[in-house]
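User: quick one - fold this with FE3-S4 cluster bound?
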Amino acid sequence: MKQTTAPRTFRVKSFGCQMNVYDGERMGEMLSARGIVPAPEGEEADLVVLNTCHIREKAAEKVYSDIGRLTKAGRAAGKEPLIAVAGCVAQAEGEEIMARSPAVSMVVGPQAYHRLPEMLDRAVQGERATDTDMPAIAKFAALPERRTSPPAAFLTVQEGCDKFCTYCVVPYTRGAEISRPYSDLVTEAHKLVDGGAKEITLLGQNVSAWSGEDAKGRAVGLAGLIRDLAEIDGLARIRYTTSHPADMDDDLIAAHGEIDKLMPFLHLPVQAGSDRVLKAMNRSHTAESYLKLLDRFRAARPDLALSGDFIVGFPGETEAEFEETVALVDAVGYAQAFSFKYSPRPGTPAATMDGQVAKEVMDDRLQRLQSALNRDQLAFNRARSGQRCQVLVERRGKRAGQWLGKSPWLQSVWFEADCQIGDLVEVELGEAGPNSLEGRVLAPARA
Ligand code: SAH
Ligand code: SF4
Ligand code: F3S
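Assistant: Sure. Structure tokens for the protein plus FE3-S4 cluster:
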């Protein structure tokens, strides 16, 4: 690789989960702190960070097509960008990326991206470098302070996963479960609020496994952290995602009934409705234990909106077992959900299991599952119409005077008002579609 001039502009492209979005924002802040500015819309950047996701094959393949596109566009413009590959594909396939794509000069894993500036200096000198070390927590301490935040901000509190579901790469790409210290999180939450955040979503691959010691040295879990963050003036809303059914404790359930700032929304993936499939997935819960858990959450917070993740076509899944998933969906009535075709991932136990399901069968099952989920999502939205609630304004709509925000139940709400991003406005929910609702503004409530 040849020597090049130091980049003036950058672009970070994040794929995958919200934690990648958080990481992407932090990498952007690091580059900005070095005087590199975000590339203007529509312009090629001097430095492109592809912050990748390895969860399914399609997601992972994207990185190679993106590298190809960037190199081609760069050649046409007479200057190829510096390319860094970050995120979970970097962690899983770092060496392969370096071998396959000479245009890539930096490969940096999700636990090592605080070293990106250093790697960049070397890349400018023409050196290629890979860093996929997994030092626990070092990254957060090494990141620059945050100055401005969006109204709905993310805060990573926990990372990694020890659950080893048999289909999943996350325990390998993100490493073992670690909790960030309580005091760091309280400090970062205050900074986010000072920078303009009204809502904070606490993030973790397994966020309800977070544990720490509070300011008085007492052991606290996620509910304790939420209780303390709820004391921050100016913070109006708290959410958390993603949880595993095995780590939901009584305190967290109670918190949903007691803390007004904790929004009535719970994303609790179940994956499948058949106990045999759940066992083969190593999920450590049954369909019944999951449903009972949801009952307890709903008893604490009756208007709770539920969300889940589903996989169809796990190896060995029969038609009857798939129908158990649909029956579970019918029983729950989700407000929203994510559903996927099983994708065999290299190195995971499920990839070599007998009974891999044919693509056409998976297509058919996914379509049937999604029509049940879409039906329930529309029903949930319609059931809210006529209700009053606050909407956090997140961005402008397509038409002049139109705005888009989120309801407490994480629904997208469109409305016309004289307001600005970050306002909390009081609306009456009107006509409901599958993906959004219209709102009529009752009063702007400048928070
Ligand atoms: N820690 C979270 C998120 C994991 S990844 C959790 O446990 O819920 C998000 C979702 O991707 C998973 O819930 C699962 O539904 C899906 N997923 C993970 N691995 C997959 C695979 N190999 N094929 C298809 N979907 C997968
Ligand atoms: Fe993956 Fe399971 Fe961990 Fe979620 S709980 S990240 S699905 S191994
Ligand atoms: Fe993807 Fe890694 Fe998140 S694999 S879903 S980016 S943890």
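One thing worth noting: The mean pLDDT is 94.
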